[in-house]
Every structure is written in structure tokens, then in C-alpha cells.
Design a protein that fits this description.
Pfam family, one: 3HCDH
CATH architecture of the largest domain: 3-Layer(aba) Sandwich
Order of helices and strands: EHEHHEEHEHEEHEHHHHH
CATH topology of the largest domain: Rossmann fold
Bound molecules: acetoacetyl-coenzyme A, nicotinamide-adenine-dinucleotide
Number of domains: 2
CATH class of the largest domain: Alpha Beta
InterPro entries: 3-OHacyl-CoA_DH, 3-OHacyl-CoA_DH_NAD-bd, 3HC_DH_C, 6-PGluconate_DH-like_C_sf, 6PGD_dom2, NAD(P)-bd_dom_sf
Family: Belongs to the 3-hydroxyacyl-CoA dehydrogenase family.
Number of strands: 8
CATH superfamily of the largest domain: NAD(P)-binding Rossmann-like Domain
Structural class: alpha/beta
Helix content: 40-55%
Distance between the termini: 53 Å
Keywords: Oxidoreductase
Radius of gyration: 19 Å
Number of helices: 11
Pathway: Lipid metabolism; butanoate metabolism
Strand content: 5-15%
């Protein structure tokens, strides 16, 4: 028997990524329920999505009517218990294995549909570590979106030793055909494909700044003008979030024990100082 088409999605977290994932699902005509820890965070998440939808309208990507319809499809809750009827849940909270594991264990108790897909947007935590916190690891998968989600067309699909073929097919079909993303598959190794390549590069750029090799402005200018990257590594670290880059590096270091994944002291100090990038207004650069 084939599974029902996914029409009810739950997104956990309405930070940069959760908001983006919720937005693209709502724009794809799917009913979306978003969990945030508090009403205030939920309101901030909704405002973030509305700003992005407004941007979609002003750049001609969507019509005003599509913006309104997407907004109607989005509901918010601070009670994970409301996720009982979800057919797909995408977890997008802070890159912390303990926090994510607790959420997966809770979801396992809540989501009633035996066909439901439980996905994580983690950047680096092996999906098996999350799967084993549930009684249904065969239904747990990685769906790794890219920032900003409405703009970047990629989703990495990460299957574990236990993910079933039916779940893999259902998740791939949703990301590809419903959301219109391009899907690549990765083995369940910390960092998957993109971050295994990207994060050593970002950390190298931070080490260059730290050692006085070149200024942050020149490093960014060099990669934009010399490699045709849309933005340089320090601006990109600011966009991703220095806290997230550090957590990804820690997770990859734990898995591979390679010095190239070890977080440089400048990154550690900036995270300790709360200078975690664009989302707080200051990282390597300042943002209005
Ligand atoms: N919603 C809808 N559309 C948006 C948008 C949003 N939130 N943000 C930007 N856009 C659209 C704009 O409308 C614009 O579209 P057109 O070109 O058709 O007009 C386009 O995206 C570019 O936007 P801007 O012109 O405003 O800005 P820009 O040209 O400076 O691009 C950027 C900004 C999209 C962030 C671009 O610099 C970029 O792609 N940077 C690289 C981002 C990247 O590498 N992301 C991956 C990070 S790693 C990751 O995500 C994985 C992980 O686990 C850490
Ligand atoms: P963010 O800082 O913007 O948002 C973090 C979210 O986690 C918020 O919704 C916050 O309320 C929630 N949160 C924090 N502590 C929590 C707790 N104890 N319990 C429940 N929720 C909690 O981070 P983000 O950039 O949206 O990243 C979220 C996830 O997406 C991470 O796993 C990250 O690795 C991954 N990711 C990030 C990027 C990126 O470029 N930032 C790209 C792809 C994937």
C-alpha cells in the first residue's frame, strides 16, 4: 500500500532555518504547524516568515495572493503535543545533540501516524544518533536544507543504516516534487556532503584572520572576485551563525578527529562573546 500524500507538515523551531522551511512548505500548498518554545519566539518566527514572503512579492517571485494564502497555511504552537496528526515533521532547532535527541524521543510518543516521516535539518549530527532515541528509527531521516531556504535549491537526503526505503522515497518525493528542491544523497557521516567541504574552508578563513594573514575584507573580496562565490567565507560564517559553525565543527571533529575540523580560538571567543553573526546584528561584520 502506498502512503498518503504529505499534506500536513510540522516544523520544530522558527529560527533562520525553521522559518525558511515552514515558508517553502506553505508556499507549496502544504498545511504547516510550527513549534516554538514560547509565544514571543513564535511571534518572531511568524514575523521572519512574513518579511521573507514580502520580499518574495517585491522581487516578483510570488503574487500578493500567494503570500496571503501561504500565511493562512501557517499556524504556530508552543505545545509539541499538537503534532499528533503530522505526516512529516522537520526538526530545525539549535545544533545540539542533546536538545535534538530529547525532541525526537518526545515526537516518538506524540506522532500517531505509523507512516509519518521524522526528519532532522541538522547540519552535522549523524542521523542515527537521533533515530535511536525513537522506537521507529526506520522512519527517521535527514532532510538538510540550505540557507536562505527560499533561495537555495538544494536538499541533502541523509539515510541511516535503519531508514526504510519507503521513508527515503517519501521524503525524496516531498523535497523534490512538492517543494521543487534538487536532492542529493549523502551517507550518514557528520557534515554530510556540503558541510564536509564547506566547514574546513570557513575555519581556514577564520584562522587566516586570526593569524593576520589577510584582513577579513580582503579574504571575502578575494573569494567573491577570484572564485565567483556569491559571498566570502567570513560573511558566510556570519550568515550561517558562528554558534552553528562552531557546533558543526565540534560534531565533525568528534566524528573524524581531524585537526582541520577543530574550531579556532577566535571562533570560540566570538561565540562566548555572543557575536554570533547576522542573526544578532554582529559577527565578523555589523548589520543594521
Ligand atoms: N526570500 C525570497 N527570496 C529571497 C530571499 C528570501 N528570504 N533572500 C533573497 N532572495 C532572493 C532575492 O529576491 C534575489 O532574487 P533575484 O536575483 O531573482 O532578484 C536573490 O534571492 C538574491 O538576493 P539579493 O539580491 O537580495 O541578495 P544577494 O544577491 O546579495 O544574495 C544570498 C544573497 C542569496 C544570501 C547570496 O549571497 C548567497 O546565495 N550567498 C551564499 C549563501 C550560501 O552559501 N548558503 C549556504 C550556507 S551553508 C548551509 O546552509 C548549510 C549548513 O548546514 C550550514
Ligand atoms: P537559529 O539560531 O536561527 O534558531 C535556533 C532555533 O532553535 C530557534 O527556533 C530556537 O528557539 C530553537 N531552540 C534553541 N534552543 C532550544 C531548546 N533548548 N529547545 C527547543 N528549541 C530550541 O538556528 P538555525 O540557523 O535556524 O539552525 C537550526 C538548525 O538548522 C541547526 O541544526 C543548524 O545546524 C541547521 N542548519 C543551519 C543552517 C544555517 O545556515 N544556519 C543551514 C542548514 C542547517
Amino acid at each position: 500500500m502506498t502512503s498518503e500524500k504529505i499534506q500536513r507538515v510540522g516544523v520544530i523551531g522558527a529560527g533562520q532555518m525553521g522559518a525558511g522551511i515552514a515558508e517553502v512548505c506553505a508556499r507549496a500548498h502544504v498545511d504547516v504547524l510550527v513549534y516554538e518554545q514560547t509565544r514571543e519566539l513564535a511571534a518572531a518566527g511568524r514575523a521572519r516568515i512574513m518579511r521573507s514572503l514580502d520580499r518574495g512579492v517585491s522581487s516578483g517571485k510570488i503574487t500578493e495572493r500567494e503570500r496571503e494564502q501561504a500565511a493562512w497555511r501557517l499556524r504556530f504552537t508552543s505545545d509539541l503535543g499538537d503534532f499528533a496528526d503530522r505526516q512529516l515533521v522537520v526538526e530545525a532547532v539549535v545544533e545540539d545533540e542533546k536538545v535534538k535527541s530529547a525532541i525526537f524521543a518526545e515526537l516518538d510518543q506524540i506522532v500517531t501516524d505509523p507512516d509519518a516521516v521524522l526528519a532532522s535539518n541538522t547540519s552535522s549530527i549523524p542521523i542515527m544518533k537521533l533515530g535511536i532515541t525513537t522506537s521507529r528509527p526506520e522512519r527517521v531521516i535527514g532532510l538538510h536544507f540550505f540557507n536562505p531556504v527560499p533561495v537555495l535549491p538544494l536538499v541533502e537526503l541523509v539515510t541511516t543504516l535503519k531508514t526504510s526505503a519507503a521513508v527515503t522515497e517519501r521524503a525524496e518525493q516531498f523535497a523534490g516534487e512538492v517543494l521543487g528542491k534538487q536532492v542529493v544523497r549523502s551517507a550518514d557521516r557528520s557534515g554530510f556532503v556540503v558541510n564536509a567541504l564547506l566547514v574546513p574552508y570557513l575555519l581556514s578563513a577564520i584562522r587566516m584572520v586570526e593569524s593576520g594573514f589577510a584582513t577579513k575584507e580582503d579574504i571575502d573580496k578575494a573569494t567573491v572576485l577570484g572564485l565567483a562565490h556569491p559571498m566570502g567565507p567570513l560573511a558566510l560564517t556570519d550568515l550561517v551563525g558562528l554558534d552553528t559553525v562552531k557546533s558543526i565543527a565540534d560534531s565533525m571533529y568528534e566524528e573524524f578527529k581531524e585537526p582541520l575540523y577543530s574550531a579556532p580560538p577566535l571562533l570560540l571567543r566570538m561565540v562566548e562573546a555572543g557575536l554570533v553573526g547576522k542573526k544578532v546584528g554582529r559577527g565578523f561584520y555589523e548589520y543594521a
